[in-house]
Each structure stands twice: as structure tokens, then as C-alpha cells.
Hints:
The structure holds 2 protein chains of 2 kinds.
Chain A lengths: L2 H7 L1 H23 L3 H21 L3 H26 L15 H22 L18 H11 L2 H22 L6 H29 L5 H19 L17 H7 L1
Helix pairs in contact in A: 1-2, 2-3, 3-4, 8-9, 8-10
Chain B lengths: L4 H21 L3 H26 L3 H30 L14
Helix pairs in contact in B: 1-2, 2-3
Amino acid sequence: MEPTLALAATKVDALTFVLSAVIILSGALGVVLARNPVHAALMLVQTLFGVAVAFVAQGAHFLAAVQVIVYAGAIVVLFLFVIMLLGVDSEESIEAEPLRNQRPLAVILGLIALAELLLLGRQDWATGAPSVVAPLTGPAANIEQLARVLFTRYLFAFEATSVLLVIAVVAAVSLARRASAEPDLDADIIESSAAEDAANLEAAVTERQGREPEVTEQQGREGEVAAVGVGRGLANGGEPPPPAPEAPPAPEAPAGGIEK
Amino acid sequence: MTVGVEWYLTLAAALFTIGAVGLLVRRNVLVMFMCVELMLNAVNLTFVSFARDLNDIGGQALVFFVMVVAAAEVVVGLGVIVAIFRRRAGATADDLHVLKG
Lengths: 260, 101
């Protein structure tokens, strides 16, 4: 078919292709060139939207929707979440180059690979028997065709992907969980906080004793018990303890720390 | 069908090349991960283009599976990255040479 006639007939298709190509390529270059990882993630969103436009232009409507929802919605949000978790100020230094000439060599290799791809594809892009699995054109909608194929011919692969997702969830949980090889650190934290609590209690007790110098020895002991009770009451939700002399004895300091 | 399949395949080749070069050039592990996503999307675009050209729904079904695998890969990969960076600060891949012989 004549390319001029084809272009005239499908100006909209060509315009869509050019627009999606511009969106995709500029976004991809932005991912590679952006210094800030957050900017790179936003450029990745732009690229994914461009790919979704290309999917729509080629009739893959369901995949375009999944592309926007899963990729641009979930995966990039996950990326941004991890970037924020690890710190956005982790910009990389361009000057540091542990491997000499790695970057120019990478660009040269990439250009060679691109030229190879284009040269190989120049002879005959698409080879193969048409409509092996199921024809794309038909009365059914795209999503219906895809579902029919997924649940008949690719049923085993479909179930395998569900197993894969379960494995990924378990892996993510076990990776992100604090490793069990660090209980000593936690124990240290608890001990130090218990010691801190004991010191605070002692300071409160001495302060209270200092404020009431006229009380007798017996009353002073009662005041100490009451002060300890105040500390426990605050830990228990702010309820003031009864000022009875038969208040429970002062708890051990480590017990207070663990209770907290 | 007049915007031929080779247009989209050329676009996908360019996208794949950008992703591969970015993977080699960048040092930030997260950005390298994003470049892997670029390459996966280039392959997805190729699948959809071939599906249209050969009039076959199988290409689109494969894109579906690629998306699932990519999602699982991102989840596990980001979990690994978080686990690594909990132990050491700094976001460069060159610092991760614990297994170097």
C-alpha cells in the first residue's frame, strides 16, 4: 500500500503514534537523566501513560486500563513510597566513576544494540502464523476475548501467577520484617528505657520529698509510695491513684519499663 | 492498520535501548529499577504490536502475564532494597560489594 495514501487515510492513527512516541521517549529520557529519584519516578509515570496510549491505539483496551491502574497506580506509588522511606536527598554523584569509561561505553553499546535491532527488523518485522491462539478481530470485545483465552488455553499459567503473587507477598513480608537476628538491640532498648524510668521516678520522689520537708519519716515514706503510684497511674492512663497509705508497694523499675 | 507495526516496533526498540543504557549508566538502585520497568514496557509494546499484526490475542495474554510478573518482581526487589538500606545508608549500587570475591 502506498505510504502517502496510508498516511492520508489514517491521519489520526499517525498523530496518535507521534504523540505517544513523544510522550514515551521524553519520559524515558527523563527517567534516565533526572538527578532526583522522585523526578525519575514521575517521568516513569509519563512513560507508562504513553505506553497505555499506544496500547489503546492498537486495540488492547483492557491492557491499557491495567497499565494505568497497576503500573502507574500501584507500582510507581510503591517506588515513591520506598524513595520517601529511604530519603529523597540521596542524589547520586555524577563524577564518581568506579569503573573507568563506563558511561560512554554504555551509551555506545546501547546505540550499537539499537542499530542491530533496527537492522534485524528491517527485513521482516513480524513473522509467524497468524491467529494461532485466537483471532483478535471478532464480534467479542477485547476484554472478553482475553478472558476466554486466559481461562481456557492459559489456565495453568494463570493459576501459576496466583501462586507467584502469594510467594511475592510472603517474600515481601519476610524481607521487610525486622530480622530476628537483632533481639539484642531490642533488649538493650528496653533495658535503657527501664533505667530511664527508674531515674525519672527517683527524681520525682526526691522532688516531692524536697517540697514537703515538714513531714515525718512515716509520712515521707507514704509520700514516696504515692509518688510511685502517680508514676504508675500516668502509665496506666492518667488516673490519679488513691492517696491511701495502704497503696501497693513501689514496683520494680524494670517492670515499669516493660509495662510502658 | 496503516500505521504499520514497524513504527511501534521501532518505538519499542528505542524505549528498550533507553532503559538498557539507563540501567548501565545510573548508580541509584531505585532508578536502575525504574529502567528495568522501561525495558519491560518496551517488550510489552512489542507484544501488543505483534498481536495486532498477526491478528492473535496470544500476545495480549502474554502482556498480562508480564505485568503480573513485573508487579511481583517490583515488590520483592523493593523489599530487598529496603532490607539492604536498613543496614547501610547510601543509595549507590557500587557500595553493595559484600559478595565480591
